[in-house]
Amino acid sequence: MTQTYALLLRGINVSGHRKVPMPELRSVLEGLGHQDVRTYLQSGNAVFTTDSAADQDALTAEIEDAIEGHFGFRVDCLVRDADYLASVAEDCPFPAAELEGKQLHAFYLSGPADPERFAAIDQEAYAPEAFALGDRVLYLYVPDGLGRSRLGDVLTRPATAKGLVVTARNWNTVVKLVEMTRGD
Predict the structure, then answer these.
(1) pLDDT digits (tens, 9 = 90+) for 33-57
(2) Spatial distance between the Cα atoms of 150 and 144, rounded to a whole number of angstroms
(3) Where are the domains of the chain?
(4) Residue 160 CB neighbour total at 10 angstroms
(5) Taking Cα atoms as reference points, which of 55, 9, 10 lies closest to residue 29?
(6) CB 109, CB 79: distance < 8 Å
(7) 64 half-sphere exposure, CB direction, 13 A CA radius
(8) What architecture is the 3-83 domain classified under in CATH?
(9) Number of C-beta neighbours around residue 67 at 10 A
(10) Which pTM value belongs to this model?
(11) Check: CATH 2.60.40 for 88-182?
């Protein structure tokens, strides 16, 4: 059965470091046998279909190995199916339709968003910024954007310190990836 997935790469094409040109990324994915490969922006977003019976974790490992083999460096990746991406958008606890894309972010996590990891963070100290946890996702509301956020930096520490891969996308990208995985 053919499945549609989004591939989220972490920490590429930032300030000229860890360059992964999107045409080459598409070629790497096609070389693994994936079809209908499309990329979005230069920040590491791809959508593909596959007939592979491998689960998301196995696909992730396969893609990370292929990227390392092609580019010469390892890139943390997350592979998520279309249903999961749609549920992240639908389950957002913030009024996404009323906000600018830069004000709302989804931090995709490689594992569960365990509330205990974030229990020591005093949300009141960062107001009006706020966060909420979902299924392998952390939602972050930052009225002045992520670049000026004090809370954004604080939130990634407990997750990455515990061995999770974390990669953030602004809400415009979240919505676009949902559309791309649905074939819109």
Answers:
(1) 999 999 998 879 999 999 999 999 9
(2) 10
(3) 3-83, 88-182
(4) 13
(5) 9
(6) no
(7) 16
(8) 2-Layer Sandwich (3.30)
(9) 23
(10) 0.93
(11) no
